[in-house]
Amino acid sequence: MVRQLAVLLSAGVFMAFAASGAAIAADGDVIARIGKEKVTEAELKAAEAELGPQFKSMPEDRRRFAVLSALIDIKALATEAEKAKLQNDPKVAAQLQFEHDRTLHNAYFAKNGVADVSDAELKARYDKEIAAMPPRKEVHARHILLKTKEEAEAVIKQLEGGADFETVAKEKSTGPSGPDGGDLGFFGPGQMVPPFEKAAFALKPGEFTKEPVQTQFGWHVIKVEETRDAPPPPYDQVKDQLRQLVLREKYMAMVGKARQQLGIEYVDPAMKAQVEAIEKEVESGQPDAGGKASGAAK
């Protein structure tokens, strides 16, 4: 029901790794000290979010210490790096700026995007999506699966002579649904192999195929019991998909507004030319050189 999404959020949207030495905490929040540096509970929690998966195979009672040990290692070498003035190295400075910006980016969206999605909003979006869904037909069918065309033709003659479909299916079908009278339940478009689907959807309730239908599984005789409009998926089943859809839209709107207010200038000539070319491709609907439609560059 809901469009499958590739959410444009980094893996760390819901977490932030505190910069070394940035936390100011009361002594009661201090977990350990390394030299003059304090390791706080807040830093440890941030580190657990970032580093925890590396220690997932460890017993739970050891995992917290492992993260703390890794955090102490990080702080130890970070202190040595500061003594060596590595923060002044252009490459290191650029990385520090990136981490600073990414942490603020994640924190801002977590507060103004993620935390702002309510159940009422998701339910309203569900109702909107359901109302916009076109009717989707489903059929309730039975089938009798046979190894040869001749066997299938013989079964069709039996049915034309008045034999009960369900009884014949139990006696002769080689498919796993045979003991259930060939009952396949309801299914919609795309759920069966094409030849089977085409034949089933061409039948009216109570009708069965007058010619055997061949698939890679064998030869089928198909009967449609009833048709219906497919019921919508339950809200709880698609709630997580809806949340991702709403989050993506909020993120794109938030970023778009910030970009527009700030203004974007591509200073590098080669980058500017590439952006302009991509924007033209998007406006014209033409694919890029890789054969895929490019995303808009703002």
UniProtKB/TrEMBL annotation:
Enzyme class: isomerase
InterPro entries: PPIase_dom_sf, PPIase_PpiC, PPIase_PpiC_CS, PrsA_foldase, Trigger_fact/SurA_dom_sf
Domain of life the protein comes from: Bacteria
One function term, GO molecular function aspect: isomerase activity
EC number(s) stated in the UniProt entry for this protein: 5.2.1.8
Domain PpiC: 136-226
This protein's record includes keyword Transferase: no
Membrane spanning stretches: none
Catalytic reactions of this protein: [protein]-peptidylproline (omega=180) = [protein]-peptidylproline (omega=0)
Region feature (Disordered): 279-298
Any Pfam family hit: Rotamase
Residue ranges the record marks as coiled coil: none
Leader peptide range in chain numbering: 1-25
Keywords: Isomerase, Rotamase, Signal
PANTHER family referenced in this protein's UniProt entry, alphabetically: PEPTIDYL-PROLYL CIS-TRANS ISOMERASE HP_0175-RELATED, PEPTIDYLPROLYL ISOMERASE
Family: Belongs to the PpiC/parvulin rotamase family.
The protein's name in its UniProt record: Parvulin-like PPIase
Source organism (scientific name): Jiella sonneratiae
